[in-house]
Fold this protein.
Amino acid sequence: MKHELKESYEALGISNKLLEIAAKAEADLQDAFQRVDEIAEVNQLKVLRAMQAHHVGEAHMTGTTGYGHNDLGRDTLEAVYASVFHTEDALVRPQITCGTHAIATALFGNLRPGDTLFSAAGAPYDTLEEVIGIRASRGSLAEYNVQYRQADLKEDGTFDYDAIDKVLQNKVKMVTIQRSRGYSLRPSFSVSAIKELIAYIKERQPDVICFVDNCYGEFTEVIEPTDVGADLIAGSLIKNPGGGITPCGGYLAGNKELIENAAAYLTSPGMGKDVGASLGILPSFYQGLFLSPTVTANAVKGALFAARVFETLGYAVSPSSNEERHDIIQAITLKTPEKLLAFCEGIQSAAPVDAHVTPVASDMAGYGDQVVMAGGTFVSGSSIELSADGPMRAPYAVFFQGGLTYPHAKVGVLCAAVRVSQGDGYSDSHGLSSIMLLIHLPLSANT
Ligand SMILES: *Cc1c(COP(=O)(O)O)cnc(C)c1O
């Protein structure tokens, strides 16, 4: 058994030395893995009970066409999401094209000309710069005369309460808080840190809408931001809550009024949640949500493993392997553009789809810097599946995430370790990795 496994890894060019590091890493992570399994168990029961409470049945697996009036499967799915997140209502649609669109729907639906949006958690995710108008863009909130304020995080990555207090001296309509780190090296926020922040804000302005960008955070803890005062959250279904099988879409969950406002923006005033055909894809929405707690747990284990292995190899990682996790993202500072590309090549080489292509840095809609993305995924662009990406800017950090199964995340990390440490003695010169480099076809990763 052990021998067969070793042979399989050797065939991928992974040296004995690296396998020893991997074995030691797994031994070191036993307690952390157990904690992740416990979180998955709680969340599995949460999702299961929500489905049972709403009497999810075979009839809900069929879809509507045309307007999508009276789409029972869609409406029940939204009720299930509302139960899982303990909110009054939810909006879960294949027509929400991505995470950015889900967040934009929350913002545009609930802000009006003259209102102020306030990011209390520092700079928002890259693509939101154009949504807000931090980078001038057609159709941004700035064009609709929505003002924007930002309180940068403190040096250590925590909330700057003095700066937040200052902004709250003036009337704010909506506060946005990003749970995950995005393409920055600041830590992700725990739900309990978000709870403290929301309490502080509401003490000063009780009527403010507290919105949380929940991307990558779902089911990494046993509570969600909506359990601690967030009025509205949003996220992508090709990340955690789609469980790796939902083919597209986004969700919002929150107070009824706020969801209605978002729906009026997404579809049309007067129509709101009542329209939007689900066609035939609802089974993958239900099943994806059902699988999400364990798929997310696998991804978190993969991130822990990546942290431990790259710590051992001498790289700066964030979070470290002994920190609590609040999302599925692992950042590894690689310091050079060559190593960033090498890491992504390693992840790509371990993919079940498109393993033979080479990721290259390119311009991407919504991003200011060139971005390199690796991910040979069943669902295009899915980042709950094994993937790695990063902007081509100092300090050349790679953001690693996903893995539908832990063994797949593990082999991906090891293939990346081989490429990154090419020449450092961790790759097996008799293995395939160096040969595979030569036969890789140049192909843009901009898909
Ligand atoms: C991924 C992500 C987004 C946007 O997601 P897309 O689906 O790529 O549009 C927004 N915020 C955070 C923190 C993210 O990780």
